[in-house]
Amino acid sequence: MALDGITIASLLPELKAGLLGGRLSKISQPQTNELLFTIKGNQKEPYRLLINVSPGMPYLCFTEENKPAPLTAPGFCMMLRKYIANGRILDITQPGMERILFFSIEHLNELGDLCRKELIVELMGKYSNIIFCDENKRVLDAIRHVPPSVSSLRTVLPGASYYLPDELKKADPLPLASAIADRTEECIPGEFFACSDPVVTRMYGYFAGLSPVICQHILNVAGLESDKAASSLSEEERIHLSHVFSRELQAVLRGEFKPVIYYKGEKPVDFSPIPLSIYPDYTGKPVPTVSDMIFRFYYEKSLHSFLQGKSADLRKIIHNALERNRKKYALLEKQMKDAQKADKVRLQAELLTAYAYMYPEPVAKVTVENYYDENKPVTISLDETKTVRQNATALYERYNKLKRTQEATEGLLKETGEAVTHLESMQLALSLSKSEADLTDIQNELKKAGYMKHAPQSGGKKKPAKEPSVAGKPLHFINCDGMDMYVGKNNLQNEYVTFTLAAANDMWFHAKNVPGSHVIVKSGGRELSDRAYEEAAALAAYFCQNHDSEKVEIDYVQRKAIKKPPKSAFGFVIYHTNYSMMAKPDISGITEVKDGLSK
To answer: What SS3 state is found at 268?
Structure first.
């Protein structure tokens, strides 16, 4: 959802609690449309306030990340440093329910006199901006200048007066919601319903601060169709909608927010300071604060987009190699099927040789007794230009050729099948990647396997390729017994958790006969409880190719029983004695550790 007026209203108390009275100790502009303020107050650690006004993704939140500033600060940043560096934040306000915040800042001028400036942050989609004004609302500068040639609604240029155009001014929903709750008003005004637009569009266009998502949520709770014309609502429906509208906005009036981020799988799709009813199929994860919600959502969304773009080339390489090997495997299977006729050809050659004396002249076909099975005589078609003995010789030659083909094909079929399994495991690893380091692991593995070229080496002798090291970190979980569990997200990490992290007596889990993650339980020599076995098996089921199945068969064994064949692909292991169990691919109740490997 967009950063609407309700989200700004829910963020405002957190901003005031952390920033009022604080001094601007540092101002930087890491990106063209981004400002980072470091504010020192009474607390031990300073606050960092990140403001991003990119047209496609504007947001404002606290952050712990100290982004590097460019060597030469942009002009807008230099002006802010000149006027309000070390200034004190007196107040932060939101006009009505607009997506705007006014930061009132007190500072000393060149003569040492106290002065005030206002930093106005507008988070309005493509119109987002950061505008710096004096105490009389005269624009001193803006991070984005808006001349008359760009916007006919309002110009934002140094020297101009700051104002909000009438077109942006909408009805404030909070006083109306309060009045309906207090029964001083019974219904939303009649002019709201004097419109043939769909009611969701009308609500979004009429009230300030309500995004289409919030409007859809209100209509969903009211049980009304969003595409129904506002003017077609009956009197009962209008009153019912008004009361639901008032009830849903009570959380905003009381300042009782429950920030949540909604995920579709691992991908963040939306967020809201109040729980929404329109995402029954998505997973809602509560977040401690509104600022944390905004930061996490935009960080994870940008990271997900970055990883998708970064992995596109790797995905294409794996897909193309996988398609080639699958086609090759199908051709080899057909070739193997033909080659398996060798025994039949050998039998025909033997029988012709045995009964050749009965046919001194060339014939087109013979039927002879099968001395291996007297009840099944064999009919053999022959080349009439050759004698029966010559036909037998030709069949022996064909048999030898088929036998050689069968022997060669068996090796190729095994090799190609292993390549398909290896590529499928890398395809799974791409879907599990959570960082650039994970993608580096997959890229190194592709290079090692010959699917990607290594960077050309400068002159001199070629050096032998080094074994790629693990760049990313395995997933880390804690089971019900307090034991660490590690899950490899790709084949390099699988080898790392199995042969480096795991001790000989630790337990090893893996989905049976399908690509998947190696799961290690660091038992420290202790016996696992039944629940601990179930949790480790659930991880192996969840992080495997068959994770969409209702249940997955999982093999488990002590780590010391796992062997790696010489010259085998990364992540490929063998074991001969193991136990098996069925597990549901559900890890919702397992605690994940987010800070990497434990000491």
So the answer is: strand
Residue 596, classed as helix, strand or coil, is coil
The confidence score (pLDDT) of residue 598 equals 38
Of 396, 343, 406, 392, nearest to 372 by C-alpha is 343
Q: How confident is the model at residue 542 (pLDDT cuts 50, 70, 90)?
A: very high
- Residue 65, helix vs strand vs coil: coil
The Cα 356–Cα 560 span in angstroms is 62
108: Cβ contacts below 8 Å, ≥ 6 apart: 114, 115
pLDDT of residue 22: 94
E-state strands within 440-538:
475-478, 484-487, 507-511, 519-522
Structure tokens at 196: 């043939």
For residues 304 and 312, give the distance between their C-alpha atoms in angstroms, rounded to a whole number. 12
Would you say 485 and 519 are in contact if contact means Cβ atoms under 8 Å apart?
yes
* Amino acid identity, position 500: T
Lowest mean pLDDT among 13-17, 464-468, 483-487: 464-468
Contact 270, 294 (CB under 8 A): no
| pTM, two decimal places | 0.64
Mean pLDDT of the chain: 88
**Which pair of tokens denotes residue 56?**
């496609």
